[in-house]
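Long-time lurker, finally posting.

We've been working with DUF4091 domain-containing protein (Myxococcus landrumensis) and I want a structural starting point before designing mutants. I don't trust myself to interpret raw outputs, so I'm hoping someone here can both generate the structure tokens and explain anything notable. Sequence follows.
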Amino acid sequence: MGAEWAWVVMAAMAATQQEAVVVSPLVKVRPGASLQGPRQARVSVARGECEGVQVVLPGTVRQLKVPSLFLKGPGEPLRAAVWREGYLDVAVPSNAQGAKGAWPDPLLPVSAPVENPELPAVLYVEVCAPEGQEPGTYRGKLRARIDSREQVSVPFTVEVQPFVLPATSSLPTSFGISQLSIARGHGLSAESPEARALLRAYARMLLEHRVSAHGMSMSPPPVRFEDGRAVVDWREYDAEMAPFLDGSLLPSGARFTTTDLRDNKKASTEAERVAYYRAFVEHFRKKDWPTQLFFYAKDEPKPQDVPLVLTQSRRVREAGGARVLITTPLDGELSDAADILAPTLNCFFPRPGPATCRAIHTVTELRKQLHSGTQVWWYQSCNSHGCNGGPSTEAAQERAYSGWASYMVDHSAMLNRAMGPLAFVNGVDGELYFDTVFAYNTKKDPWKDLFEFGGNGDGTFFYPGTPARLGDSRHQPVPSLRLKHLRDGLEDFEYLRLLARLGDEKFARDAARQLVRSGWDIRQDAREWAQVRQVVTARLRQRWSTSEFAKRSGRHTPESTP
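Top reply, 14 upvotes:
Generated this for you. Predicted structure of DUF4091 domain-containing protein:
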């Protein structure tokens, strides 16, 4: 559940020029910030979880070397991953909650060239505990050599908790990604083996952060039709998708929770389209993939799009076995056509002032008006920061678009992280997001400008790690600090859900509501998040120790125990 439990309470001394300072991952370290924190890191991590911490190095850093960090304890040593935080220079704030200037976001390999030594030198250190890790206390020291002279040493203590989080997200998600965009961002041919390999690397990184993807290569499997039946060649599709659907890609066995049904132009008649969709569903059943297959209908349909969406829904339903996802508020014409109804986040929370959604209903109200079995998802849009290209000059409008959970670079880590706890409190069935590499497909340099749809980072969670940029010999995805916050929010969801499943649902809901009171009322104090984390962790330890899962085997979760 993200922030670390002891040091983050900030009962420590001010930084000096000689020592590194440990800072909560919920604090975005900007130039000129006055930082306080301890000289050692204490991290709490569940089995099946990853947790980050920031180490702010002293002085000006031009060259940096960080040896591998191993933590020793009662089980196999834990190896920490270390990145150096880069900065995005924000020219136009997303809204009044943002600000111009340098904001931390790209997580660079430590070996990457230091472009501006005047910016803060911050390491993001991440510890992941496998499901089978022996619980207990692990210790080690992070060492960093600055400019070939100064040696910084930071003691690390990691407490591996006895309870286990599931490898696959319990909250279904679907975030867009595109091989074409990735290829353009890296200056590669879209059909090259390098682009295909990069797509897998990007999608793997999403899965490592509990996120499932739609789009991918976007290439439909070849099909021909014989006697009304679709004969599909699945070889290329399976080579691309099977590792993400069968749990073979990661050692944890994590898999995509959802994936999209890909249209094929070879299916030109209504009967052929239905047969093709049916073949898709039958292939998933034959492979025994538990991933939910869905059809993404026309995005944010306008009134003139209604006939098309109704036709799309009818085809998919006639084929059977896949869900129809429609991104719309409650709508008399379209709601009955949706198996997954996905309004924007703003459509769930009434708020004084100008309306940011044309039809506002709570999740409970929506379920009463939808057919039984219809799932309710939500997604962020530019309504989380305003769609007008920066802060509004009208105070009422600025208030209406402020405070929302947001994935923008120049918004707080708490806003970046809030969607998971919000999902638990409000009971939504899943989260959608339109893209993770949108800026790659524009004429801008994502390293210098992520301003799209009125916000910094809307639709982009990565940076193109080209050899020229990183001083390396290979292309690779560079994750963002916001991707870590998104992951931490999904882990918050797992903590709360596990506590509820262990018989303490009221406690879990009360804890979450201390942090996320609505989609636009989210606590902004890192200390409060850390305190809730500590309390929930203690409660989980207590509940887990007396549960049937701990008695049967310390490795089982409620989901994996028969």
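Before you design anything, note these points.
The first strand starts at residue 21 and ends at 23.
The radius of gyration is 24 Å.
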